[in-house]
Amino acid sequence: MKKLFIETLGCAMNSRDSEHIIAELNRKEKYDLTTTLGDADLIIINTCSVREKPVAKLFSEIGVFKKKRKNGAKIGVCGCTASHLGKEIIKRAPVVDFVLGARNVSKINDVVSQRHAVEIDTDFDESSYDFASYRSNPFKAMVNISIGCDKQCSFCIVPATRGEEISIPKELIVQEITKAVSTGAKEVMLLGQNVNNYGRRFTSPDEKCDFVQLLRAISAISGLERIRFTSPHPLHMDNEFLEEFASNPKISKQIHVPLQSGSTMLLKAMKRGYTKEWFLNRCQKIRTLCPEASISTDIIVGFPAESDEDFADTMDVLERVRFDQLFSFKYSPRPHTDAAEYEQQVDPTIASERLTALQARHTEILDEIMDTYLDTIHQVYFDELKPNNKIAGRSDDGKLVFVEGSEELLGQIVAVKITKVSRGALDGIVIGE
Ligand code: SAH
Ligand code: F3S
């Protein structure tokens, strides 16, 4: 049997794309997954282009693949960098056998058999494509609900690499989740660049369904216990959506509310469509409707023209919302984006200082949040065996929890009392059903 080495960078959608790549390849020819580069007959890197660093690393990685691969092994570059650099990749690194864009995953079997094939059509519509099935973890299913993104956030390359937004028909989503549940998944993670904009555009004009209706249809699937989704957009967090989030018992009480900046002026330059006040108002609404919810966010520092006052606004939102999780980034100018052309790019040293200050304050807040978990009881869904008789799972509000236990706990939702807290995770003991 042939062997496949696949490296996945970037977001959850890329992880799902990699699962689709594996499944589609196996439809035609069986591949065993390997983590040893030198054993592979096919080497794939599923790339991310959201910031410059991973793109810069791509060509040095290809160099390593070239050196370490076994004789005759093929190399493929997939994902967002494939979409944005296209045949440039083969020009710079002729050792690459094929390039497959983030919106062309279903064409993997065509490109794998052609030398120097490049498929990067960002208009390609895969919204009704019936992908073969492969899941790296049978207990939790990632399911795409839309492809592409119609926002034009001025810092973001994703609309250029994943194309315009198309929602996947509700029936197909429900069908896919039902299938995943029948093979052991109690949890689903719904994926899209802007999930709460679901239903904005379907390929068929007859299709109609919004995100709340979709959530209700998915909740009706018997055997499914937990619904998560990423990422929603603060602009589309209307009351109806937040009320559904709070009141639907199958929806996990963890929500990502990507801030980007606390300054209304910068939010405008970022073309985010909301103000600092709207953002705070939505987080307040979440806290009122659902005090137990955990809130995570994304923040960019050093966006063009960011002043000390703008950054102070970001710190102010951090103080007020006290995010459970923070993904923070130094602004990275990207091709095909408006912000790359903006004047007044921020001095990288200042941006680094702001990032350090933001992360340091968040760490303090996080330590205080985690301390409140001691001695509390949580329903934990166990999905991964760890070394030393440990087993890992997630509380309903998304915290990583470890207990001592064996595989009987896998796929179970069990009450756990927290006995030890740390910044990244909780330890506990099983106390029952
Ligand atoms: N809609 C997607 C966004 C994908 S990009 C989602 O919500 O997951 C993920 C995050 O990367 C963004 O929220 C933003 O914080 C960050 N990001 C995007 N472009 C960036 C850039 N040019 N520089 C730095 N960070 C960026
Ligand atoms: Fe990017 Fe904004 Fe869409 S961050 S993925 S353009 S919602």
SSE order and pairing:
Elements: E1 2-8, H1 12-28, E2 31-33, E3 42-47, H2 52-68, E4 74-79, H3 80-85, H4 88-92, E5 98-101, H5 108-112, E6 117-119, E7 140-144, E8 146-147, H6 158-162, E9 166-167, H7 170-182, E10 187-191, H8 211-219, E11 226-230, H9 239-247, E12 254-256, H10 264-269, H11 276-289, E13 294-301, H12 308-321, E14 325-330, H13 348-371, E15 377-386, E16 390-395, E17 400-404, E18 413-421, E19 426-432
Parallel strand pairs: 1-2, 1-3, 3-4, 4-5, 5-6, 7-10, 10-11, 12-13, 13-14, 17-19
Antiparallel strand pairs: 8-9, 15-16, 15-18, 16-17, 18-19
Helix pairs in contact: 11-12, 12-13
The structure holds S-adenosyl-L-homocysteine and FE3-S4 cluster.
FE3-S4 cluster binds next to α6.
Provide structural commentary:
The chain contains 13 helices and 19 strands. It is 33% helix and 24% strand. It folds into three domains: 2-119, Methylthiotransferase, N-terminal domain (Rossmann fold, 3-Layer(aba) Sandwich), CATH 3.40.50; 140-371, Alpha-Beta Horseshoe (pyruvate-formate lyase- activating enzyme); 377-432, Nucleic acid-binding proteins (OB fold (Dihydrolipoamide Acetyltransferase, E2P)), CATH 2.40.50.140. With 433 residues, the chain is of the alpha/beta class. The longest helix has 24 residues, at 348-371. The strands form five sheets. Strands 2-1-3-4-5-6 form a six-stranded parallel sheet, with helices on both faces. Strands 15-16-17-19-18 form a five-stranded mixed β-barrel. Helix 1 links the parallel strand 1 and strand 2. Helix 11 runs parallel beside helix 12.
